[in-house]
Amino acid sequence: MEGLKYIPDKKFECNVELSGAEKFYVWDGVSKELPCKETEPLLCDISFSVPTRMKTLSYRADVAVAAPEAMVISPEPGRLAQIIFVRETLSAVSSRVRISCRESGNYNLVLCYHTNGNHEYLTEEQIEILVSGGAKLDLVIMQNEGALSIHNTDFKIRVEKDSLLSMNLITLHAGKVSNKIHSLLSESGGQCNLNGLYLADGKQVIDTKITLLHNAPECISAQMFKGILSGEAKSKFEGTIVVTPKGQKTEAYQANNNLLTSESARASSDPRLVIYADDVKCSHGSTCGSVGEEEIFYMRSRGICEAEARLLQQQAFAGAVLDKVSSTELRERISRLVERRLRGEDTVCAGCGKRCC
Predict the structure, then answer these.
(1) Residue 301, Cβ neighbours under 10 Å: how many?
(2) Hey, which bits of 133-232 come out as E strands?
(3) What sign has the CA pseudo-torsion 312, 313, 316, 320?
C-alpha cells in the first residue's frame, strides 16, 4: 500500500500505538487512502453429494458477493499495516472490504473499530479475505465500539494452496455484534486458524456463527473462541466444520468456552462436525460455567482478596486466546485493554462512546 496521504481531523485518535505501523483511516465506510474498485468474485461456493446405501447425502453452501465495489487492502510483506474504522454520522453504513495476499511472504494487518459518540450506529460490513501463493497472513481485529452500536460483519475467507491465515477477533465492547465467518480451504496444504475473545456486560449481545469448509486434502484448521459475560449479557456461538469427500487427511479442531460471572448472563454454544471423508482427525467441544470457587478459595488463602482473585482467573481464561496474537507489542496492549475492561475502569467513559483504546 502507498504511504499515508490523508490526515484526519483530531475528533478521534486511535491510541493503539504500534511501532512502525502504517496507519489508514476509514470514516463511516469511506476512505481517502485506500483504493475502491471492482474486484473479482471471491469464490466460496461448494456443492456435493455422497451416495449411501439408503439415500444420497448432499450439502450446499452458497456465498454471494453483493456489493460491486470494495475497499482493497493489499498489505506489503514484512510491514505492519493498521486500518482504523470510525463511525461518526448517524446514518446506517454498508461497506465491503477486500484483503488480498497473493504472494509468498509474511503479512501483518490490524483492523480497529471505534465509534465517535454514544449513538445507535448501524454498520453492515462484508470483509473478504483471499490468501494464496504461499502467503501467511496474521490478522488481528479489534471491535471496540459504543454501548448502543450495532455492528454486523460477514466474513468471506478463501485460503489456497500452502497458504496460512491466522485471524484473532477481539470484541472488547459494543451493543450488539454479529460476526458471521464463512471460510473455505480450497487447495491442499492450506491452513486456517480462527481465534476469538468476546467480553460483554450490561445488555450486550454477541452472536458468532462459523462455517469452515475443508474441500481439499491435507489441510488444517483450528478454532478457539472464548467469552466472558456479566450483567444480563448474552452470547450465541454456532460453529460448523464441513469436510467434503475431497478433504482426506484433514485436521480440524474447534472449541468454544464461556465464563459467566453473573447469574443473569447467558451463553449458548452449538459446535458441529459434518464429515464426508474417512481419513480425518477432527474434534470439537464447548463449555459454559462460572468461576471456579476452589481456585478462588486457594488464592484467598494465599492473601489475595476475592475481587483480585476473580480478576486473575478471568485474565487466565482470556490469556489462552491472547497468546495467539503473535506481535508481543500488540498482545501486551490488548492484554492491558482486557484487564481494564474486566476491572470496569472504562465505565466512567460510558457516556462518551469513543471507546478510545
Answers:
(1) 9
(2) 135-144, 150-159, 164-173, 176-185, 191-200, 205-214, 220-229
(3) negative
Say if CB 138 and CB 166 are below 8 A apart: yes
* Cβ contacts of 246 within 8 Å, gap of 6 or more: 215, 216, 217, 277
Angle between the N-to-C axes of helices 306-322 and 328-343, in degrees from 0 to 180, rounded to the nearest 10: 150
Mean pLDDT, rounded, of the chain = 84
Using an 8 Å Cβ cutoff, are 194 and 223 in contact? yes
* Residue 262: pLDDT over 80: yes
pTM listed for this prediction: 0.88
Q: Collapse the DSSP code of 3 into the 3-class scheme (helix H, G, I; strand E, B; otherwise coil) and give the result.
A: coil
* Bridge pairing between strands 122-131 and 280-289: unpaired
For residue 244 the three cell numbers come to: 467434503
142: its cell numbers: 479489534
Question: Residues near 64 by Cβ (< 8 Å), separated by ≥ 6?
Answer: none
What whole-number distance in Å separates Cα of residue 126 and Cα of residue 106? 24
* Helix or strand run (H / E) with residue 293: helix 293-301
Give pLDDT tens digits for 182-233: 999 999 999 999 999 999 999 999 999 999 999 999 999 999 999 999 999 9
Provide the b/e sequence for 176-187 (b: ≥16 CB within 10 Å): bbbbbbbbbbbb
Phi-psi region of 29 (alpha: psi -120 to 50; beta: other; left: phi over 0): left
Q: Rounded to an integer, what distance in angstroms lies between the CA atom of residue 64 and that of residue 37?
A: 18
Residue with the three cell numbers 466444520: 241
* Cα end-to-end span (Å), the chain: 25
Q: Which residues of 194-223 are buried (b: 16+ CB within 10 A; e: fewer)?
A: bbbbbbbbeebbbbbbbbbbbbbbbbbbbb
